[in-house]
Protein: DUF1797 domain-containing protein
Amino acid sequence: MSKETETQLETILRRLRAMQVDDRQTVQTRYFEQFGVAVCKVTFDHGTGDWTVQDARTEPAFSYDNIDMVAVAVYDALSEFTAVF
Structure:
């Protein structure tokens, strides 16, 4: 699949999987941006296998143990931000 045909959800999943593979640090953190603005922060703890998604605008953090649910949460945050931008 080329980059041009890759969906936004597939791109998010690819970045999340990279966090799982990268074991240089116990806790991995990535920011997901839209239009150069940080929309949410995702943290993965290798020790527990837990994910945390924190919305940059509203500050609450939500915990997940499933990568697919994390991808949906990030996708929703990016879509919502795009709709109001």
